[in-house]
TrEMBL record:
Family designation: Belongs to the GHMP kinase family. GalK subfamily.
Span of domain Galactokinase N-terminal: 9-57
Pfam families according to UniProt: GalKase_gal_bdg, GHMP_kinases_C, GHMP_kinases_N
Assigned EC number: 2.7.1.6
GO BP term (any one): galactose metabolic process
Cellular component annotations (GO), alphabetically ordered: cytosol
Limits of the GHMP kinase N-terminal domain: 91-179
Record keywords: ATP-binding, Carbohydrate metabolism, Cytoplasm, Galactose metabolism, Kinase, Magnesium, Metal-binding, Nucleotide-binding, Transferase
Protein name (database record): Galactokinase
Gene label: galK
InterPro entries named in the record: Galactokinase, Galactokinase_CS, GalKase_N, GHMP_kinase_C_dom, GHMP_kinase_C_sf, GHMP_kinase_N_dom, GHMP_knse_ATP-bd_CS, Mevalonate/galactokinase
Amino acid sequence: MDIEFVRSRFIKHFDGKEGNIYASPGRINLIGEHTDYNGGFVFPGAVDKGIMCEIRPNGTNTIMAYAIDLKDRVEFKVDDPQGPRASWARYIYGIVQEMRKLGVDVKGFNTAFAGDVPLGAGMSSSAALESCYAFALNDLFGDNKVSKWDMVLAGQATEHNYCGVNCGIMDQFASVFGKAGCLMRLDCRSREFEYFPFNPVGYKLVLLDSVVKHELAGSPYNDRRNSCENVVKHIAAKHPEGKFETLRDCTWEQLEEVKAEVGDEDYRRAKFVLGEKDRVLAVCDALNAGDYETVGKKMYETHYGLSKEYEVSCEELDYLNDIAKENGVTGSRIMGGGFGGCTINLVKEDLYDKFIADAKAKYTAKFGHAPKVYDVVISDGARKIC
Protein backbone atom coordinates (compact mmCIF):
# COMPACT_ATOMS: atom_id res chain seq x y z
CA MET A 1 0.00 0.00 0.00
CA ASP A 2 1.34 3.43 -1.00
CA ILE A 3 1.46 5.85 1.94
CA GLU A 4 1.94 8.87 -0.31
CA PHE A 5 -1.10 7.92 -2.40
CA VAL A 6 -3.37 7.70 0.66
CA ARG A 7 -1.96 10.96 2.02
CA SER A 8 -2.47 12.81 -1.27
CA ARG A 9 -6.13 11.72 -1.41
CA PHE A 10 -6.68 12.69 2.22
CA ILE A 11 -5.20 16.16 1.70
CA LYS A 12 -7.19 16.69 -1.51
CA HIS A 13 -10.56 15.76 -0.05
CA PHE A 14 -10.26 17.55 3.26
CA ASP A 15 -8.59 20.78 4.41
CA GLY A 16 -5.04 20.19 3.25
CA LYS A 17 -3.75 19.19 6.67
CA GLU A 18 -2.09 15.86 7.39
CA GLY A 19 -3.26 13.34 9.99
CA ASN A 20 -1.97 10.02 11.32
CA ILE A 21 -1.71 6.97 9.09
CA TYR A 22 -2.63 3.46 10.25
CA ALA A 23 -2.66 0.07 8.53
CA SER A 24 -4.14 -3.36 9.17
CA PRO A 25 -3.73 -6.53 7.10
CA GLY A 26 -5.88 -9.16 5.49
CA ARG A 27 -5.16 -12.79 6.33
CA ILE A 28 -4.59 -16.29 5.07
CA ASN A 29 -5.32 -19.52 6.93
CA LEU A 30 -2.71 -22.22 6.38
CA ILE A 31 -4.82 -25.05 7.77
CA GLY A 32 -7.87 -25.54 9.99
CA GLU A 33 -11.08 -25.12 7.97
CA HIS A 34 -14.63 -25.50 9.31
CA THR A 35 -13.10 -26.04 12.74
CA ASP A 36 -14.05 -22.75 14.39
CA TYR A 37 -17.70 -23.63 15.06
CA ASN A 38 -16.57 -27.10 16.15
CA GLY A 39 -14.46 -25.68 18.96
CA GLY A 40 -11.20 -26.50 17.21
CA PHE A 41 -8.06 -24.73 16.06
CA VAL A 42 -7.31 -22.39 13.17
CA PHE A 43 -3.89 -21.42 11.87
CA PRO A 44 -4.01 -17.94 10.30
CA GLY A 45 -1.39 -15.34 9.52
CA ALA A 46 -1.52 -11.67 8.58
CA VAL A 47 -0.46 -10.80 5.03
CA ASP A 48 1.27 -7.91 3.29
CA LYS A 49 -1.99 -6.67 1.76
CA GLY A 50 -4.61 -4.80 3.72
CA ILE A 51 -6.27 -1.47 4.52
CA MET A 52 -4.51 1.86 5.12
CA CYS A 53 -6.25 4.95 6.46
CA GLU A 54 -5.33 8.52 7.30
CA ILE A 55 -7.34 10.08 10.09
CA ARG A 56 -7.36 13.43 11.92
CA PRO A 57 -9.74 14.79 14.58
CA ASN A 58 -11.78 17.71 13.21
CA GLY A 59 -13.06 19.34 16.41
CA THR A 60 -16.73 18.55 15.67
CA ASN A 61 -19.17 15.71 16.33
CA THR A 62 -19.18 14.68 12.67
CA ILE A 63 -17.24 11.91 10.96
CA MET A 64 -16.33 12.63 7.36
CA ALA A 65 -15.08 9.51 5.57
CA TYR A 66 -13.82 9.07 2.01
CA ALA A 67 -13.41 5.65 0.40
CA ILE A 68 -10.57 6.24 -2.08
CA ASP A 69 -11.06 3.09 -4.13
CA LEU A 70 -14.82 3.67 -4.46
CA LYS A 71 -14.56 7.46 -4.87
CA ASP A 72 -17.40 7.77 -2.38
CA ARG A 73 -17.80 10.16 0.57
CA VAL A 74 -20.09 9.80 3.60
CA GLU A 75 -20.77 11.96 6.66
CA PHE A 76 -22.49 10.95 9.89
CA LYS A 77 -22.63 12.04 13.52
CA VAL A 78 -20.66 10.13 16.13
CA ASP A 79 -23.86 9.49 18.09
CA ASP A 80 -26.16 8.96 15.09
CA PRO A 81 -28.57 6.17 16.19
CA GLN A 82 -29.04 4.84 12.65
CA GLY A 83 -25.72 5.40 10.91
CA PRO A 84 -24.96 5.64 7.20
CA ARG A 85 -26.55 3.45 4.52
CA ALA A 86 -23.44 2.87 2.41
CA SER A 87 -22.25 -0.66 3.20
CA TRP A 88 -18.55 0.29 3.42
CA ALA A 89 -19.34 3.12 5.85
CA ARG A 90 -21.26 0.76 8.13
CA TYR A 91 -17.94 -0.84 9.13
CA ILE A 92 -16.51 2.50 10.28
CA TYR A 93 -19.77 3.47 11.97
CA GLY A 94 -19.95 0.11 13.75
CA ILE A 95 -16.37 0.35 15.03
CA VAL A 96 -17.07 3.86 16.33
CA GLN A 97 -20.09 2.60 18.28
CA GLU A 98 -18.32 -0.50 19.63
CA MET A 99 -15.25 1.49 20.72
CA ARG A 100 -17.51 3.98 22.48
CA LYS A 101 -19.08 1.05 24.37
CA LEU A 102 -15.55 0.21 25.56
CA GLY A 103 -15.13 3.71 27.00
CA VAL A 104 -13.26 5.34 24.13
CA ASP A 105 -14.38 8.99 23.90
CA VAL A 106 -14.61 9.14 20.11
CA LYS A 107 -14.96 12.64 18.63
CA GLY A 108 -15.50 13.74 15.05
CA PHE A 109 -12.74 13.08 12.54
CA ASN A 110 -11.84 13.25 8.87
CA THR A 111 -10.58 10.08 7.25
CA ALA A 112 -9.69 8.54 3.90
CA PHE A 113 -8.78 4.91 3.30
CA ALA A 114 -7.75 2.52 0.55
CA GLY A 115 -7.01 -1.18 0.32
CA ASP A 116 -5.12 -3.73 -1.73
CA VAL A 117 -6.75 -6.88 -0.32
CA PRO A 118 -8.09 -8.80 -3.34
CA LEU A 119 -11.88 -8.84 -3.19
CA GLY A 120 -13.50 -12.27 -3.28
CA ALA A 121 -10.25 -14.08 -2.50
CA GLY A 122 -11.17 -14.90 1.10
CA MET A 123 -8.51 -12.66 2.64
CA SER A 124 -10.92 -10.68 4.83
CA SER A 125 -10.86 -7.08 3.66
CA SER A 126 -13.74 -6.21 6.01
CA ALA A 127 -11.83 -7.43 9.07
CA ALA A 128 -8.81 -5.41 7.93
CA LEU A 129 -11.00 -2.30 7.70
CA GLU A 130 -12.49 -2.86 11.16
CA SER A 131 -9.12 -3.56 12.77
CA CYS A 132 -7.51 -0.53 11.14
CA TYR A 133 -10.10 1.85 12.57
CA ALA A 134 -10.28 0.12 15.95
CA PHE A 135 -6.52 0.56 16.33
CA ALA A 136 -6.67 4.17 15.11
CA LEU A 137 -9.53 5.21 17.42
CA ASN A 138 -7.85 3.55 20.40
CA ASP A 139 -4.67 5.48 19.63
CA LEU A 140 -6.31 8.85 18.96
CA PHE A 141 -9.13 8.91 21.51
CA GLY A 142 -8.54 6.04 23.93
CA ASP A 143 -4.95 6.61 25.11
CA ASN A 144 -4.31 3.00 24.00
CA LYS A 145 -6.28 1.65 26.96
CA VAL A 146 -8.35 -0.83 24.96
CA SER A 147 -6.74 -4.26 24.72
CA LYS A 148 -6.02 -6.05 21.44
CA TRP A 149 -8.62 -8.67 22.29
CA ASP A 150 -11.21 -5.93 22.85
CA MET A 151 -10.39 -4.57 19.39
CA VAL A 152 -10.86 -8.06 17.92
CA LEU A 153 -14.25 -8.43 19.60
CA ALA A 154 -15.27 -4.90 18.56
CA GLY A 155 -14.63 -5.90 14.95
CA GLN A 156 -16.65 -9.07 15.34
CA ALA A 157 -19.48 -7.13 17.01
CA THR A 158 -19.43 -4.65 14.11
CA GLU A 159 -20.08 -7.51 11.68
CA HIS A 160 -22.85 -8.93 13.87
CA ASN A 161 -24.61 -5.71 14.89
CA TYR A 162 -24.21 -3.35 11.92
CA CYS A 163 -23.36 -5.43 8.84
CA GLY A 164 -25.50 -8.55 9.24
CA VAL A 165 -22.67 -11.09 9.14
CA ASN A 166 -22.57 -13.68 11.95
CA CYS A 167 -18.81 -14.30 11.69
CA GLY A 168 -16.33 -15.95 14.04
CA ILE A 169 -13.22 -14.28 15.43
CA MET A 170 -10.43 -15.65 13.23
CA ASP A 171 -10.34 -12.82 10.68
CA GLN A 172 -10.23 -9.96 13.18
CA PHE A 173 -7.84 -11.92 15.40
CA ALA A 174 -5.33 -12.38 12.59
CA SER A 175 -5.62 -8.74 11.52
CA VAL A 176 -4.92 -7.41 15.03
CA PHE A 177 -2.44 -9.96 16.40
CA GLY A 178 -0.49 -10.71 13.20
CA LYS A 179 3.29 -10.89 13.42
CA ALA A 180 5.79 -10.86 10.55
CA GLY A 181 7.38 -14.26 10.00
CA CYS A 182 4.85 -16.08 12.19
CA LEU A 183 1.59 -17.92 11.87
CA MET A 184 -0.73 -18.26 14.85
CA ARG A 185 -2.53 -21.25 16.26
CA LEU A 186 -5.77 -19.99 17.77
CA ASP A 187 -7.92 -22.17 20.00
CA CYS A 188 -11.42 -21.05 19.01
CA ARG A 189 -12.87 -22.36 22.26
CA SER A 190 -10.52 -20.85 24.86
CA ARG A 191 -9.08 -17.98 22.72
CA GLU A 192 -5.61 -19.08 23.72
CA PHE A 193 -3.07 -18.64 20.94
CA GLU A 194 0.57 -19.23 20.16
CA TYR A 195 2.95 -17.90 17.52
CA PHE A 196 4.76 -20.38 15.28
CA PRO A 197 7.72 -19.47 13.06
CA PHE A 198 6.96 -19.43 9.35
CA ASN A 199 10.13 -18.72 7.39
CA PRO A 200 10.01 -21.22 4.53
CA VAL A 201 13.41 -20.57 2.95
CA GLY A 202 13.33 -21.91 -0.59
CA TYR A 203 9.52 -21.90 -0.76
CA LYS A 204 6.82 -19.44 -1.75
CA LEU A 205 3.26 -19.19 -0.50
CA VAL A 206 0.83 -18.29 -3.29
CA LEU A 207 -2.93 -18.10 -3.70
CA LEU A 208 -4.61 -19.16 -6.94
CA ASP A 209 -8.04 -17.55 -7.17
CA SER A 210 -10.49 -19.62 -9.20
CA VAL A 211 -12.55 -16.45 -9.81
CA VAL A 212 -15.73 -18.44 -9.24
CA LYS A 213 -18.26 -18.63 -6.44
CA HIS A 214 -20.97 -21.25 -6.68
CA GLU A 215 -24.31 -20.52 -5.03
CA LEU A 216 -25.76 -23.84 -3.90
CA ALA A 217 -29.40 -24.48 -3.15
CA GLY A 218 -30.34 -24.58 0.50
CA SER A 219 -27.96 -23.68 3.31
CA PRO A 220 -24.74 -25.68 2.77
CA TYR A 221 -22.90 -24.21 5.74
CA ASN A 222 -25.83 -24.72 8.09
CA ASP A 223 -26.26 -28.26 6.79
CA ARG A 224 -22.68 -29.12 7.67
CA ARG A 225 -22.93 -27.50 11.06
CA ASN A 226 -26.10 -29.50 11.73
CA SER A 227 -24.29 -32.70 10.72
CA CYS A 228 -21.56 -32.02 13.26
CA GLU A 229 -24.04 -31.17 16.00
CA ASN A 230 -26.02 -34.33 15.27
CA VAL A 231 -22.93 -36.50 15.75
CA VAL A 232 -22.13 -34.74 19.03
CA LYS A 233 -25.70 -35.32 20.22
CA HIS A 234 -25.47 -39.05 19.55
CA ILE A 235 -22.09 -39.37 21.23
CA ALA A 236 -23.33 -37.45 24.26
CA ALA A 237 -26.33 -39.80 24.56
CA LYS A 238 -23.99 -42.80 24.73
CA HIS A 239 -21.71 -41.11 27.29
CA PRO A 240 -23.91 -39.21 29.76
CA GLU A 241 -20.98 -38.98 32.16
CA GLY A 242 -19.03 -36.77 29.75
CA LYS A 243 -19.28 -33.17 28.58
CA PHE A 244 -19.74 -32.93 24.83
CA GLU A 245 -20.34 -29.43 23.48
CA THR A 246 -18.66 -29.71 20.07
CA LEU A 247 -16.72 -32.28 18.05
CA ARG A 248 -13.60 -30.92 19.75
CA ASP A 249 -14.69 -32.93 22.79
CA CYS A 250 -15.11 -36.21 20.90
CA THR A 251 -12.67 -39.02 20.10
CA TRP A 252 -12.22 -41.23 17.05
CA GLU A 253 -13.46 -44.23 19.04
CA GLN A 254 -16.65 -42.40 20.02
CA LEU A 255 -17.27 -41.42 16.41
CA GLU A 256 -17.00 -45.05 15.34
CA GLU A 257 -19.50 -46.03 18.04
CA VAL A 258 -22.23 -43.91 16.45
CA LYS A 259 -21.34 -44.46 12.78
CA ALA A 260 -24.37 -46.62 12.03
CA GLU A 261 -26.76 -44.32 13.88
CA VAL A 262 -25.80 -40.97 12.33
CA GLY A 263 -25.62 -42.11 8.72
CA ASP A 264 -22.84 -41.93 6.15
CA GLU A 265 -23.03 -38.22 5.37
CA ASP A 266 -22.86 -37.00 8.96
CA TYR A 267 -20.15 -39.55 9.71
CA ARG A 268 -17.95 -38.34 6.85
CA ARG A 269 -18.34 -34.72 7.88
CA ALA A 270 -17.43 -35.47 11.48
CA LYS A 271 -14.51 -37.58 10.26
CA PHE A 272 -13.14 -34.56 8.40
CA VAL A 273 -13.40 -32.31 11.47
CA LEU A 274 -11.61 -34.78 13.77
CA GLY A 275 -8.95 -35.30 11.12
CA GLU A 276 -8.49 -31.56 10.69
CA LYS A 277 -8.00 -31.15 14.43
CA ASP A 278 -5.15 -33.66 14.27
CA ARG A 279 -3.69 -32.08 11.13
CA VAL A 280 -3.45 -28.63 12.70
CA LEU A 281 -1.50 -30.05 15.63
CA ALA A 282 0.75 -32.01 13.26
CA VAL A 283 1.49 -28.83 11.29
CA CYS A 284 2.45 -27.07 14.53
CA ASP A 285 5.04 -29.75 15.25
CA ALA A 286 6.28 -29.65 11.65
CA LEU A 287 6.73 -25.87 11.67
CA ASN A 288 8.70 -26.03 14.90
CA ALA A 289 10.97 -28.57 13.21
CA GLY A 290 11.21 -26.59 9.97
CA ASP A 291 9.64 -29.56 8.17
CA TYR A 292 7.72 -27.97 5.31
CA GLU A 293 7.30 -31.26 3.46
CA THR A 294 5.05 -32.50 6.26
CA VAL A 295 3.21 -29.18 6.26
CA GLY A 296 2.52 -29.66 2.55
CA LYS A 297 1.39 -33.26 2.99
CA LYS A 298 -1.16 -32.17 5.59
CA MET A 299 -2.42 -29.43 3.25
CA TYR A 300 -3.15 -32.04 0.57
CA GLU A 301 -4.92 -34.21 3.15
CA THR A 302 -7.08 -31.25 4.14
CA HIS A 303 -8.03 -30.61 0.51
CA TYR A 304 -9.03 -34.26 0.07
CA GLY A 305 -11.14 -34.09 3.23
CA LEU A 306 -12.83 -30.84 2.23
CA SER A 307 -13.56 -32.24 -1.24
CA LYS A 308 -14.62 -35.82 -0.50
CA GLU A 309 -15.71 -35.86 3.16
CA TYR A 310 -16.98 -32.36 3.93
CA GLU A 311 -18.00 -31.80 0.29
CA VAL A 312 -17.36 -28.06 0.04
CA SER A 313 -15.10 -28.11 -3.01
CA CYS A 314 -16.01 -27.65 -6.65
CA GLU A 315 -14.65 -28.69 -10.04
CA GLU A 316 -12.48 -25.59 -10.41
CA LEU A 317 -10.79 -25.92 -7.01
CA ASP A 318 -10.18 -29.65 -7.45
CA TYR A 319 -8.63 -28.94 -10.85
CA LEU A 320 -6.24 -26.35 -9.38
CA ASN A 321 -5.29 -28.87 -6.70
CA ASP A 322 -4.62 -31.52 -9.36
CA ILE A 323 -2.40 -29.11 -11.31
CA ALA A 324 -0.44 -28.45 -8.11
CA LYS A 325 0.17 -32.17 -7.64
CA GLU A 326 1.24 -32.59 -11.26
CA ASN A 327 3.80 -29.79 -10.84
CA GLY A 328 5.32 -31.17 -7.65
CA VAL A 329 3.92 -28.39 -5.45
CA THR A 330 4.70 -29.19 -1.81
CA GLY A 331 1.20 -28.46 -0.49
CA SER A 332 -2.12 -27.23 -1.86
CA ARG A 333 -5.67 -26.98 -0.57
CA ILE A 334 -8.89 -25.01 -0.60
CA MET A 335 -8.65 -21.90 1.58
CA GLY A 336 -11.88 -20.73 3.15
CA GLY A 337 -15.44 -22.00 3.25
CA GLY A 338 -15.34 -23.59 -0.19
CA PHE A 339 -17.65 -23.70 -3.25
CA GLY A 340 -15.21 -21.34 -5.00
CA GLY A 341 -12.50 -18.87 -4.05
CA CYS A 342 -8.83 -19.80 -3.72
CA THR A 343 -6.38 -22.58 -3.26
CA ILE A 344 -3.39 -21.83 -1.04
CA ASN A 345 -0.16 -23.37 -2.30
CA LEU A 346 3.25 -23.98 -0.71
CA VAL A 347 5.64 -24.30 -3.65
CA LYS A 348 9.41 -24.57 -3.99
CA GLU A 349 10.91 -21.48 -5.57
CA ASP A 350 12.56 -23.40 -8.41
CA LEU A 351 9.17 -24.86 -9.39
CA TYR A 352 7.20 -21.64 -8.99
CA ASP A 353 7.37 -20.16 -12.51
CA LYS A 354 6.51 -23.43 -14.25
CA PHE A 355 3.64 -24.10 -11.83
CA ILE A 356 2.07 -20.67 -12.34
CA ALA A 357 2.45 -20.84 -16.13
CA ASP A 358 0.99 -24.35 -16.25
CA ALA A 359 -1.90 -23.44 -13.96
CA LYS A 360 -2.81 -20.41 -16.04
CA ALA A 361 -2.64 -22.29 -19.34
CA LYS A 362 -4.54 -25.42 -18.27
CA TYR A 363 -7.16 -23.60 -16.21
CA THR A 364 -7.85 -21.13 -19.04
CA ALA A 365 -8.16 -23.94 -21.55
CA LYS A 366 -10.70 -25.76 -19.37
CA PHE A 367 -12.74 -22.90 -17.88
CA GLY A 368 -12.25 -20.00 -20.29
CA HIS A 369 -10.45 -17.64 -17.93
CA ALA A 370 -7.18 -17.62 -16.01
CA PRO A 371 -6.92 -17.88 -12.24
CA LYS A 372 -5.69 -14.78 -10.43
CA VAL A 373 -2.33 -15.15 -8.70
CA TYR A 374 -1.50 -13.57 -5.33
CA ASP A 375 1.89 -14.05 -3.74
CA VAL A 376 1.73 -14.00 0.05
CA VAL A 377 4.18 -12.55 2.57
CA ILE A 378 3.39 -13.03 6.28
CA SER A 379 3.37 -9.59 7.91
CA ASP A 380 2.53 -7.56 11.01
CA GLY A 381 -0.94 -6.82 12.36
CA ALA A 382 -2.71 -3.50 12.98
CA ARG A 383 -0.27 -0.66 13.58
CA LYS A 384 0.42 3.06 13.34
CA ILE A 385 2.56 3.97 10.35
CA CYS A 386 3.20 7.66 11.06
